[in-house]
Amino acid sequence: MATEHTVKSFEQELRRLSGLITQMGGVAEAQVDAAVQAVTRRDVDLAGRVMQSDNRLDDYERQIEQETIRMLALRQPMGSDLREILAALKISADLERTGDYAANIAKRSIALAQLPAVRPASAIPRMGKLVQEMLKEVLDAYVDRDLDKAIAAWHRDEELDDLYTSLFREVLTYMMEDPRNITPCTHLLFIAKNLERAGDHATNIAETIHFLIVGQPLTTDRPKGDESSFAVVSPETPATP
């Protein structure tokens, strides 16, 4: 009876840990959504609320870290139980960083709201929506232990990279056309890069789910579409639409 009670209580602890990840993921999704809205609506008050709410994700990460350390020390898990705990630790770190990027976007939006609007900003909602979809898909995959759903989200990182590269070229062109665009376009570039990095963390979560379910790391090369490091735009070369 004593062994059965111990196993049951461990299962409850694992479910509670999984629930914390789900809650934290919901907060991260909401933070990204609000940050992008702050940019598109030029809403300084909303941006301030996003920045203040970043502490919630920090609190979740600390709580999950404490839980995992306690469970590792007391339960000494092996096999799938050990993967459950390590996956929670890794996913919470990715979600915390996603929240940091949302806060950075909100901070940039405050500066951007003080400047004239520029056309490339219209690409930001598309990037933001894609990041939110990727986050939702990997969190659903985590809850359902659905490998196919995780891999599908993993492949969408290339789509996000393509959007970022396109915006990067357009922003460079705008800056060359009129030096007055340099300041707002620079803020836009940082905002877009933060979204691209948030997508990378969603991809990390998909890889962690693969390890959680299969027990092996995902060894396939990660799909990448970010070509901004090689982009060269001159006044004679129009931006790629």
Automatic annotation (TrEMBL):
Pfam families noted in UniProt: PhoU
UniProt GO BP: intracellular phosphate ion homeostasis; negative regulation of phosphate metabolic process; phosphate ion transport
Region named Disordered: 220-241
Keywords: Cytoplasm, Phosphate transport, Transport
Residue ranges annotated for the PhoU domain, each copy included: 21-108, 124-208
Places the protein is found: Cytoplasm
Coiled-coil residues: none
Domain of life: Bacteria
GO cellular component, one term: cytoplasm
Record's subunit section: Homodimer.
PANTHER family: PHOSPHATE-SPECIFIC TRANSPORT SYSTEM ACCESSORY PROTEIN PHOU
Functional note: Plays a role in the regulation of phosphate uptake.
Family the entry assigns: Belongs to the PhoU family.
Name used for this protein in its record: Phosphate-specific transport system accessory protein PhoU
Name of the gene: phoU
